[in-house]
């Protein structure tokens, strides 16, 4: 009998059940019932899902979220790589720049939200003052473009350093011989980057893209503190949308959205992982 | 293809090894010429500057002084690309995201050639290296030995490659495949008449591969350049004598007296010819003799000097004895069948025709 291994897995199974599995089942259960406030739940099958998928508010929130996450990836990943390439490799300046870059990562989400709220507040904030000086009437509380753009810039400021640190670690682990070989083969700077640096960064980039995608999809505290989801619904990203629904006691509806939310995150993450793992592998030049 | 000549080449640099520790690497005033189309081995102990020298030849580093000449043309200031040089590194370097074809095509495409014009050349090189079945396989999936072949292939793919430099290319290869790959290298070298410079600290590798061997000493200087036979038979310095051969040459301090060569109390009679060549001003005489030429017997012998057997190493084909007498230690090779055990007395003599004499570090006989 070699089934004693199960014993060692038991703690994980117990903890996972309590922290993930049981709540998940509860949410599945909610999503299949019509519940309003404290009234008796009524089994409605997939009716909640149908309602969610037909709801224009859901479509808006999903589109907004996809645009936001796409922009986050499109800006933070290339920017992170570029900054990592530009950082000094060794010496005192390497340490100093890493510490400076690490600072945003150390600040808790809600503190970031508060700090940026003070930055951007139209009466006392420094950002409206500066932009006003250049003739731009910035107002995060009223302008439906300024608000999401501010949250996007906040996210870039907060999380690009994570991509930088990942890439920096990845770059440090590339042996010099690869660059020397590229030099001997007469490769241009671009080709060296394309065929040496980028493939060698593959695994850290997979990690970076997945982390940034999942995290940006879950963005919650920042819009909550900075704009409260407004003006209108211009910064009501997915998490905020779900919690709003739950707060208004539409538990069945919120449950269905949560399940769809989970499904979307898993599907996208899987697709990203597959694409990035297989890209450029196997015969491509022929 | 080109001849390579180094003139008064010097370079040095420090590598910081952590808390205040530094390791210095240097090459000092090197002068050597390697003819076009030769297989050259650059042999020396670890840390003697072999890789530094190689990087100076390929242009990966600019030497602090001296010149690098290809076919008598000064290329010291030219970039790596302009030198048309190829280098194969200790660890196989391939472009993982390309297939083998793409890897072999890479240097040619970088030179501005079109993909359709180079297909023939790539197939030719792939065939020589026995890579023709792997052309469409991703380079990242190859075994280390095949990766190293691809790496070599990129080196020889340019028809106008001046020379191929190899920096201990077999280190990470499976021992069984090392032999095959080394033979393949030699075959490629012969077929294309490429000047190849092969860096190694393994003398067996160097001596089997090369037409010419250059030995570097620990202080970053060239100790001797010659054919494997020359290095073995007539080492210029005690270092070369000791470094080449397994086990290396026995080097013993001695002095010339009226009776002959005196080693710490026992005297070896010498011929008049040797005496006339060796006598002269200066001290620091050293005698060198290879272990296989040391005459050793288990019975007392006329002219033999008694030594005590300290260590016996049985290689299977023969035994290597380490013998001692006072402070002197020598190694000798005897037949497998001789019944010798530790602490036995062994009588030793040095046949004069196999004796080399060095004064102040250079051979005089």
What does this structure look like?
The complex is a heterodimer of chains A (286) and B (365). The model of chain A is unreliable at 282-286 (pLDDT under 50). The longest helix of chain A is centred in the first third of the chain and has 31 residues, at 56-86. Chain A has a two-stranded antiparallel ribbon. By secondary structure, chain A is mostly helical. In chain A, 73% of the residues lie in helices and 1% in strands. Chain A is globular, with a radius of gyration of 23 Å. Chain A has one domain (56-278): MetI-like fold (Orthogonal Bundle), CATH 1.10.3720. With 365 residues, chain B is an alpha+beta fold. Chain B is built from 10 helices and 21 strands. In chain B, the strands form 4 sheets. In chain B, strands 6-7-8-3-9-10 form a 6-stranded mixed beta sheet, sandwiched between helices. In chain B, helix 3 packs across helix 4 (115-128) and helix 3 (100-110) packs parallel to helix 5 (144-156). The A-B interface holds A 175, 177-178, 180-181, 183-188, 191, 195-196, 198-200, 280-286 and B 55, 58, 60, 80-81, 85-87, 89-91, 93, 95-99, 101-102, 105-107, 110-111, 136-138, 140, 151, 154.
Provide key terms for this protein.
A: 286 residues, mainly alpha, MetI-like fold, two-stranded antiparallel sheet, B: 365 residues, alpha+beta, Rossmann fold, OB fold (Dihydrolipoamide Acetyltransferase, E2P), 2 domains, six-stranded mixed β-sheet, 10 helices, 33% strand, elongated
Quaternary status: heterodimer
Compute the CA-based radius of gyration of chain A.
23 Å
Could you say how many structural domains of chain B there are in total? 2
Count, helices of chain B? 10
Strand order of the largest sheet of chain B: 6-7-8-3-9-10
């Amino acid at each position: 009998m070699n089934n004693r291994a199960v014993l060692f897995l038991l703690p994980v199974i117990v903890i996972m059940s309590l922290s993930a599995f049981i709540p998940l089942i509860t949410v599945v259960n909610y999503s299949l019932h019509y519940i309003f406030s404290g009234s008796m739940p009524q089994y409605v099958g997939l009716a909640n899902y149908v309602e969610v998928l037909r709801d224009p508010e859901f479509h808006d929130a999903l589109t907004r979220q996809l645009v936001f996450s796409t922009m986050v990836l499109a800006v933070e990943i290339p920017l992170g790589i570029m900054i990592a390439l530009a950082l000094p490799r060794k010496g005192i300046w390497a340490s100093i720049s890493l510490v400076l870059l690490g600072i945003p990562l150390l600040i808790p989400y809600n503190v970031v939200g508060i700090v940026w709220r003070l930055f951007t507040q139209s009466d006392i904030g420094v950002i409206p003052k500066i932009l006003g000086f250049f003739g731009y009437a910035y107002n995060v509380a009223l302008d439906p473009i300024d608000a999401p753009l501010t949250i996007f810039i906040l996210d870039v400021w907060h999380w690009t350093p994570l991509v930088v640190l990942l890439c920096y670690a990845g770059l440090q682990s590339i042996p010099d011989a690869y660059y020397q070989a590229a030099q001997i083969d007469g490769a241009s700077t671009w080709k060296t980057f394309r065929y040496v640096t980028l493939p060698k960064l593959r695994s850290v980039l997979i990690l970076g893209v997945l982390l940034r995608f999942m995290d940006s999809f879950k963005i919650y505290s920042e819009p909550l503190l900075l704009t409260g989801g407004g003006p209108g619904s211009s910064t009501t990203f997915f998490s905020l949308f779900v919690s709003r629904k739950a707060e208004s006691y539409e538990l069945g509806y919120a449950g269905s959205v949560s399940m769809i939310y989970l499904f979307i995150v898993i599907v996208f993450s899987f697709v990203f992982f597959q694409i990035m793992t297989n890209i450029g592998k196997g015969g491509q030049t022929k | 293809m080109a001849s390579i000549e180094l003139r008064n080449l010097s370079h040095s640099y420090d590598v910081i090894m952590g808390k205040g520790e530094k390791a210095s690497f240097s090459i000092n005033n090197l002068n050597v010429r390697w003819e076009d189309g030769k297989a050259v081995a650059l042999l020396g102990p670890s840390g003697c500057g072999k890789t530094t020298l190689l990087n100076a030849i390929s242009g990966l580093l600019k030497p602090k002084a001296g010149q690098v000449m290809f076919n008598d043309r000064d290329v010291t200031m030219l970039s790596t690309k302009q030198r048309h040089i190829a280098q194969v590194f200790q660890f196989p370097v391939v472009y993982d995201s390309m297939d083998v074809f793409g890897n072999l095509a890479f240097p040619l495409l970088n030179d501005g050639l079109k993909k359709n014009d180079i297909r023939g050349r790539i197939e030719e090189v792939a065939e020589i290296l026995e890579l023709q079945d792997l052309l469409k396989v991703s380079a990242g999936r190859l075994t280390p030995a095949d990766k190293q072949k691809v790496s070599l292939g990129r080196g020889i793919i340019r028809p106008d490659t001046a020379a191929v430099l190899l920096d201990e290319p077999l280190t990470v290869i499976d021992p069984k495949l090392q032999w095959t790959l080394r033979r393949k290298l030699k075959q490629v070298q012969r077929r294309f008449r490429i000047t190849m410079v092969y860096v190694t600290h393994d003398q067996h590798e160097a001596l089997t591969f090369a037409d010419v061997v250059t030995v570097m000493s620990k202080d970053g200087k060239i100790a001797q350049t010659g054919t494997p036979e020359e290095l073995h038979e007539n080492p210029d310095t005690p270092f070369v004598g000791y470094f080449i051969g397994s086990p290396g040459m026995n080097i013993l301090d001695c002095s010339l007296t009226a009776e002959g060569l005196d080693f710490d109390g026992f005297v070896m009679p010498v011929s008049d010819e040797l005496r006339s060549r060796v006598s002269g001003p200066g001290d620091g005489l050293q005698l060198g003799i290879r272990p296989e030429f040391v005459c050793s017997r288990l019975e007392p012998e006329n002219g033999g000097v008694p030594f005590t057997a300290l260590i016996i190493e049985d290689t299977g084909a023969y035994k290597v004895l380490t013998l001692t007498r006072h402070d002197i230690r020598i190694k000798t090779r005897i037949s497998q069948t001789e019944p010798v055990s530790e602490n036995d007395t062994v009588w030793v003599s040095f046949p004069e025709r196999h004796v080399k004499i060095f004064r102040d570090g250079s051979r005089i006989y």
